[in-house]
Structure formats: structure tokens, C-alpha cells
Specification:
By secondary structure, the chain is α+β, with helices and mostly antiparallel strands. The chain has a single domain, classed as Endonuclease/exonuclease/phosphatase (Deoxyribonuclease I, Chain A). Strand 1, helix 2 and strand 2 form a beta-alpha-beta unit. 42% of the residues are buried. The chain starts with a helix and ends with a strand.
Length: 313
Amino acid sequence: MKNIYIIIAFLLFYNYSVGAEKVMWYNVENLFNTCHDTLKNDFDFLPDGTYRWTPARYWRKLDNISRVIAAVAEQDGWPMLVGVCEVENDTVLHDLCFRSPLHVAKYHYVHHDGPDLRGVDVALLYQPILFRFLGSESIRVPSAEQGLRPTRDILHVWGKMIRTDSLLHVFVLHFPSRAGGNKASTENRMLAAQTLCQALDTLQGHRILVMGDFNAEPRDPIFRPILQRLVSLVPQRRKELKKAQGTYNYQGLWGYIDHILVSPAMQSNCEPRVHVAKLPFLLTEKGTPWRTFQGPVYKGGYSDHLPLYVDVW
């Protein structure tokens, strides 16, 4: 892990005179601590649970996430914003930002506890020297009220990009899983999309950035109402991809289920496409994401997703 500290120590002194701010999204795959939350079903991620989630494995996971963010930062400096999902609680975010190798980057974070049965939430890391935090809210997706499985809240954060003094609204989300492929999961994702659109409609004309794991490909019906309000920065059609790529690999097939989108008012300030951080150390010999777990088997890798990032000018 010595190399992580060398990279991060260098980036700590990086000159932030470049003309763009980087925004990054990353599904970190089950960042749990090793203590039981009495209100959540986190038994699998305990030292005596299914995944034998020990302190050593937990701290290695934090080191791995630190290395990924540092690698994305290596070219142009630390991302101004890092959206993450599948984080258990405030404790793991505190450990990541202040007790892991990432602590020298001086990130702050925004997090609200949500209703997910396993206890996983979304969160936003931000650089205070680049983004002035002004406020946040947790937007509840009314899944339980519709007789559906409770899902993650949508995190809405607003603040100012310090260089330009521009107000920016950021939405961080993790839509319901596709597990089982049943009708209920599809309805739940559509309900989450409708909830997002209702929030977007109150902010017409503002600079808005939305990032998350939508658990849906670009052509999925849930994007029809979303794309009436936002512009996607990921390829919309397979023929646009010169080779198999994406953020997630399922049964040998790549796809984009992670997305970054912006409002029309912000489109001209972003690169036309996001970048997938297909870093060599994130991949197995087969070229697929090096996961932390494959089923219940510990692989010691990073995540089952690859990160996305985009430059905002």
C-alpha cells in the first residue's frame, strides 16, 4: 500500500490552476463496517457472517477505494465531487475520508441514512477548496407506500463552484436492483425515476448534475422522462461503442448502468462524453471488474463496477 501514499502525497500538493473540475461517480460495492446495525440486515457483513467481513478486509477495502480515487486524480488533480453508493453509514465515510490513505485529500462528505433494508446508502464527497457546500436534503422514493421494497433515498446537495461562483445542484442516486428481473423491480425503478423528475421540475433553468447507478441501460424506458429534462453524457446506442465497454459486466456482456447527466444549462460546460476509468489494476486477467466478492467468495478486489468521471469547465 506504500504506493498509494506516494501518489496521494504528490496529489496533495498538486497545483489547482487547471481550467476544469473533475466530477467522479463510483459504485464501491458493499462498503460495510464490521459492527452490526440493529436496525438493518447487515448480518452477512460481520466477522462471523456469510462473507467473513473482518477488520483486515474492511481496511483493505478502504485502501482500495482510496487508490481508485487517487488514480483518477493523477492527471488533473483531485475530483471536486465524488458520488458513491453502497456505503453503509456515516462511520464508513468518516473512516474513508479521515482514517484511510485518502485523508490527505481533505474530502468532506454529505450523507443521510435511508430506508434500504440492508442499510446501504448514497453519499457525496466534496473538496471544500473547490465546492462550497450550502445545503442538502434526502428525497424519499415512496416505494414502501406502493407496496414495493424500500429503496435508497435520492441525495440532493447544492453549493457553489468556488472558481466561478456558480450555483450547482447535485443529485446522487442508486435506483432499485434488477435482481430477479420481475415486474416489481421495474415498477420500483420507474417510481424512482418519477421521484427524480419531480425534484428536477422545481429547478428548471438551474445548473444540475445527476450521477448514480440507475440499474438500467441508456435505452431503458425509465430514461424517457429523465431525458426530457437532462442530457446524458454516456453513449446512448451500442453502435457508438467501437468495442465492448461500459461500467458493469454481467455474464460476459458490458453495459452502462452507471450514468452522469446534466441539465441543458450546463451541457456546454462539460466534456461531451464521460470517461470510464478502465484502469488496469481494476480488471481481472479476463478484463472484467476485479470484485471484492464473487458470490460469497472473497476476491480482494475493488468493485463490480468501474468508475465514471467527467470534466466540468
